[in-house]
Write a structure and sequence with these properties.
Radius of gyration: 14 Å
Number of strands: 11
Number of helices: 0
Strand content: over 45%
Largest sheet: 7 strands, mixed
């Protein structure tokens, strides 16, 4: 009923920039909090950044000052602008969203399928 699709990943040099997008579609009454997570091989999936429906943001310490999360509610899309990229940023990046599909009811958590980011010289 609800689908999240990430895009924008790829290969980038250290110090470079990349912008990820995540578009939500389906039976969406309201998009609530949205976020970006990443998972490197052999590691757990960790929070990178999150943004509330009102635009309040939170970041992992490792990306503060380098990454910016934003959202376009009219397009049901969340973005992650990444700059000053480091080798340690290499991972598969996933977006998620808490979605209300009816005017009344509990929100459900949905995940995208991920987009890989590789930082290499």
């Amino acid at each position: 009923q609800v689908q999240l699709v990430e895009s924008g990943g790829g290969l980038v040099q250290p110090g470079g920039s990349l912008r990820l997008s995540c578009a939500a579609s389906g039976s969406i009454f309201r998009l609530n909090a949205m976020g970006w997570y990443r998972q490197a091989p052999g590691n757990q999936r960790d929070l990178v950044a999150a943004i509330s429906s009102g635009g309040v943001t939170a970041y992992a310490d490792s990306v503060k000052g380098r990454f910016t999360i934003s959202r376009d509610n009219a397009k049901n899309t969340v973005y992650l602008q990444m700059s000053s990229l480091k080798f340690e940023d290499t991972a598969v990046y996933y977006c998620n969203a808490h979605v209300t599909t009816q005017a009344s009811g509990v929100s459900a958590l949905y995940w995208g399928q991920g987009t890989p980011v590789t930082v290499s010289s």
